[in-house]
């Protein structure tokens, strides 16, 4: 993984809605770190720090470093609450990682060769059924993203989870439940309008043939 993310935080003792509201007014974000059989740590982060870091897609699929109270913890982000109307992060949840225990993380899917795929060249359009995939892996094997090559997909074709080659040590959480949970990731189909035009043209040809026979 190429990107690295380090956030500086401070411990907080005040909890509750009132305390969180005061922190947000001070341009701070209340947060919590939990997991690894340790006591949760209640923290505050500078809003601008986490806001700018979260602009990067990789922030959500990387191991992050949070430094506070003279210590450093390796974590992944598990939840981020945003204000429904304003550009503001309201709260963040982080989970500690353990090098010997698998993580479950949503990793973005990157689609390759869409514009040069057989189906798009034939006039089809791409439909993304999934944009991220939940994977299970050890922290050292966590991928930044999953690649899906669309080059050989033609109109009417789709690519499923079972067709994706995952990096070594990485498993799909959905497929861990069995191949009957296989799902389409992307497909190529003709635009709806073009299908209708083709049907009308075929019907028109049939009517003309019938008129000539009469």
Tags for this entry?
214 residues, alpha+beta, Ribosomal Protein L25, Chain P, RNA Polymerase Alpha Subunit, Chain A, domain 2, 2 domains, 6-stranded mixed beta barrel, 4-stranded mixed beta sheet, 20% helix
Polypeptide structure, described:
It contains four helices and 13 strands. It has helices at residues 17-25, 47-53, 118-121, 192-213, and strands at 6-11, 28-35, 38-46, 64-68, 71-82, 89-96, 103-112, 125-128, 132-137, 146-149, 158-160, 171-172, 184-189. β4 and β5 form a beta hairpin. The longest helix has 22 residues, at 192-213. The radius of gyration is 24 Å and the shape is elongated. The mean pLDDT is 89.
Topology:
Blueprint: E1 6-11, H1 17-25, E2 28-35, E3 38-46, H2 47-53, E4 64-68, E5 71-82, E6 89-96, E7 103-112, H3 118-121, E8 125-128, E9 132-137, E10 146-149, E11 158-160, E12 171-172, E13 184-189, H4 192-213
Parallel strand pairs: 1-4, 2-6, 7-10
Antiparallel strand pairs: 1-3, 2-3, 4-5, 5-6, 7-9, 8-13, 9-12, 11-13
């Amino acid at each position: 993984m190429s990107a690295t993310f380090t956030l500086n935080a401070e411990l907080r003792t005040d909890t509750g809605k009132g305390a969180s509201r005061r922190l947000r007014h001070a341009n701070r974000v209340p947060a919590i770190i939990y997991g690894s059989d340790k006591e949760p740590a209640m923290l505050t982060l500078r809003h601008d720090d986490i806001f700018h870091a979260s602009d990067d897609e990789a922030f959500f699929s990387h191991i992050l470093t949070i430094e506070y109270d003279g210590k450093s913890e390796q974590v992944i982000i598990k939840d981020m609450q945003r204000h429904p109307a304003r550009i503001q992060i309201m709260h963040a949840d982080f989970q500690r990682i353990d090098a010997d225990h698998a993580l479950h993380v949503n990793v973005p899917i990157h689609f390759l060769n869409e514009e040069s795929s057989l189906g798009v060249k034939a006039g089809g359009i791409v439909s993304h059924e999934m944009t991220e995939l939940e994977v299970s892996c050890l922290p050292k094997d966590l991928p930044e993203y999953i690649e899906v090559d669309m080059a050989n997909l033609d109109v009417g074709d789709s690519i499923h989870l079972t067709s994706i080659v995952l990096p070594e040590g990485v498993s799909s959480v959905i497929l861990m439940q069995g191949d009957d949970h296989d799902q389409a990731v992307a497909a190529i189909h003709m635009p709806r309008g073009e299908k209708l035009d083709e049907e009308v043209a075929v019907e028109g040809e049939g009517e003309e043939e019938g008129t000539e026979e009469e």
